[in-house]
Amino acid sequence: MIKTLTDILREELPDLDFDVQTSNDPERGHLSTNAAFFLAKRDHASPMKMAEELRSHLHKHAPSDYFEKIEIVAPGFINVWLTPDAIRSEFKRICKTKVWGKGKKRKETAIVEYSSPNIAKPLHVGHLRSTIIGDAIANIYDFLGYSVVRWNYIGDWGTQFGKTIVAYKKWGDREKIKKSPVEELSRLYVKFHEELKQHPELEDSAREEFKKLENGNKTNLKLWRWFKKESLKELSKIYNRLGVRFSIYIGESFYQDKMEGSVRSLIVDGLTKESEGALIVPLEKYGLSPGLIKKSDGATLYLTRDIANLEFRLDEYKPSKIVYVIANEQALHLSQLFAIADLRGLGEGVELRHVKFGLVLGEEGKKFSTREGGVIELGQVLNEAVKRAEQTIKERKASLTLVEAKRVAQAIGIGAIKYNDLSQNRLSDITFDWEKMLSLEGNSGPYLQYTYARLKNILRKARVVPKLKASALEENRDFAIVMKLAEFPEVLKRASQFYMPHYLANYLYELAKKANSFYQSEPVLSSTPEFRNVRLNLVKETVKILKTGLNLLGIETVEKM
Ligand code: ARG
Q1: Cβ 336 under 6 angstroms from ligand 1
Q2: Which one of 98, 102, 105, 124 is the catalytic residue?
Q3: In the chain, what are the domains?
Q4: Is 117's C-beta closer than 6 angstroms to any atom of ligand 1?
Q5: Sheet of 77-82, strands arranged across
Q6: Which of 169, 343, 507, 552 is most buried as measured by Cβ atoms within 10 A of its Cβ?
Q7: Is 127 a catalytic residue?
Q8: pLDDT higher than threshold 80 for residue 367
Q9: Is 57 designated active site?
Q10: CB atoms within 10 A of CB 170
């Protein structure tokens, strides 16, 4: 039903990010949309006038028993009342559908690239954001029926390896690397930069060592392979704890022998220029600084590898979209990459998308780090979250066995971190506020998990949920929940189209709030058979959507907490 409304509007406004929301106030109808403002902006007209036009358009295109009335409210909102029959039949449809919101399998591949840490440089929480956001986006696309390739483009090549090799040869310790490779390699990298201040000649040694690595020097190759192996082992432990997986780990080193071909194509197409001995691709046409393809010493760059990477992806997977989940800071790099793709006519018709995100700030609003030098140990951040969740559980004195409590703490702690990230607009900087993140009240992961567990408890007590008799569905009270449930598929579409997981997170929060306040005031189990039937069905569908939605965000639900 929301679908009908949205579909009619979408036909008019295919690319605009307007929304159709269920309203919180029955006085304002069941649904309301801001679509007229978007149309007004596009057509330089007044929102009120556009709202009028939309209203007649809606009346013309909807089934005849669909709208009860449509009201326009200054400065241009459209409020919609649906007929009780429309709402009842929608609820029947929701109850009958096995997985509400799930899309049919389609023959389209989406490559979603996320996490992509550098294994010889300090990991930072930005990589945690990329991991969390990317995983959610991949899950949503998968749910909507795409074939999703989850790609971890690890930073396993580049001059930084020269630095790490120099540092290891000078100050490294085999055992320490074995014990905690990511931390130790980061430490070496940081130490290299500290020493560099006194000993600028280290820069040359690093270049030398990397050159040797590129040329296949045995010792360096062996070191590089070992660093990589140990780091990936440790990373996969973190991914396991986060419940995140990848279909492919193809990183920068893979493109070493493919870059020459890409560079040649650029030259053949006449897109390059020499500049002070280096090879560049001028990009004034796009308002961008030139893309650096080769340094004067012949070394290739991050951008060169990404060009080869893009060509490979297009050839091998024939995707309809490639989504790069990478921090705001790399916006220029991605713009250059996409501009070069455009110049070369690569991937015409393929959507290339930089899904950007802001920084993670600590509680005082400073860049989040646990240690001098910006070295952040993701494992420790996760430990901290779980420890705090354990505390919360203890305080609640829930009747859980020791084993259950451990599992619940894990789900809540990790869920809190993920939800904190995914419930905020990804473009903004987010804060890492432990208290708020782990609170059982307000817009938090634990609150949603708690709501889920509580509703699940009602179903457990009821034992069976009878087949729906929709006629008993009460106007206003029950309708409000139905409207919210009905919104789910549209929310997913919008979250996917704009790569905004917070649309989904905030929807789940709204749903949970509605469900909580409803079941606080209306009895379910003890009401008359008629109402009991309807309400149990409402609880059941709410529970299903909460679970589906949270899982799409990569958050586990727990049955008791
Ligand atoms: N490894 C890079 C970093 O940590 C991120 C890679 C992003 N992906 C890409 N295709 N460039 O900064």
Answers
A1: no
A2: 124
A3: 2-82 (3.30.1360.70), 147-156+251-355 (3.40.50.620), 160-235 (no CATH), 415-552 (1.10.730.10)
A4: yes
A5: 20-22, 31-33, 77-82, 67-73
A6: 552
A7: yes
A8: no
A9: no
A10: 13
